[in-house]
Automatic annotation (TrEMBL):
UniProt keywords, alphabetically: Membrane, Transmembrane, Transmembrane helix
InterPro entries given in the database record: DUF6313
Annotated transmembrane regions: 24-49, 79-98
Stated name of the protein: Uncharacterized protein
Pfam family, one: DUF6313
Superkingdom per UniProt: Bacteria
Length: 211
């Protein structure tokens, strides 16, 4: 069960760090699924009614809706395929290139002793106990965890919320790339929290929920 919890936490961290991306990759992660999920559903229904081969051919304009029949399904699928598939394939290729090149370094950063910087929201315990090249105040992560009664999971949760809010509010120059944007957000939030006395802003919000 702890594997499931780890995956849920990883997904949450990924979701909160999305705003470091820009352009089509960002759109796909935030809104693109609103287009892609109905389209995928239409494909599945057409495949069930007309056969997977026919649905595939209609989607890619290899066969016309007239040849296959069931035009109430195949005409929308053909039009959707014409509109969505080329852009989606291009965007997917772009995401793969970006994620592979940044993950090759990111994976090193995820390992103890890794030096490179991942574009994801860094975990507080990495920042405290492993080598990294983020510009943050000394003992920042340890002190932030101590503000949460050394509950590192709660501290990590609040750290991610604060990073996400900063990413979506601040006007970064995202042409610098997702990893640079994340590095700037990490430094800015860490120094901001370091300069605050007393409670973490998220804890204060939980304590006074009507603000
Ligand atoms: Zn780092
Ligand atoms: Zn907190």
């Amino acid at each position: 069960m702890s594997v499931v919890r780890d995956v849920v936490r990883w997904f949450r961290r990924w979701r909160r760090g999305r705003a470091r991306h820009s352009g089509i990759p960002y759109w796909l992660m935030v809104q693109g699924y609103l287009v892609l999920v109905p389209f995928a559903l239409l494909f599945v229904i057409t495949a069930a009614v007309c056969g997977a081969r026919n649905a595939y051919d209609v989607m890619l304009q290899i066969a016309s809706p007239g040849e296959v029949g069931y035009q109430w399904l195949t005409v929308p699928l053909s039009m959707g395929g014409w509109l969505i598939v080329p852009g989606f394939a291009g965007a997917l290729a772009g995401i793969v290139v970006v994620e592979v090149t940044s993950n090759r370094r990111g994976r090193q950063a995820d390992r103890p002793g890794g030096r490179a910087r991942s574009g994801e929201i860094p975990r507080l315990n990495w920042l405290q106990y492993y080598r990294h090249d983020h510009d943050i105040p000394d003992y920042f992560a340890l002190r932030f965890a101590q503000r949460h009664g050394s509950d590192w999971k709660l501290a990590q949760d609040h750290w991610e919320i604060l990073i996400e809010r900063f990413l979506t509010i601040e006007a970064f120059d995202r042409r610098l790339g997702a990893r640079v944007v994340m590095a700037q957000a990490v430094s800015a939030v860490a120094y901001f929290l370091h300069g605050l006395s007393g409670k973490c802003p998220e804890c204060a919000k939980v304590a006074r929920p009507n603000e």
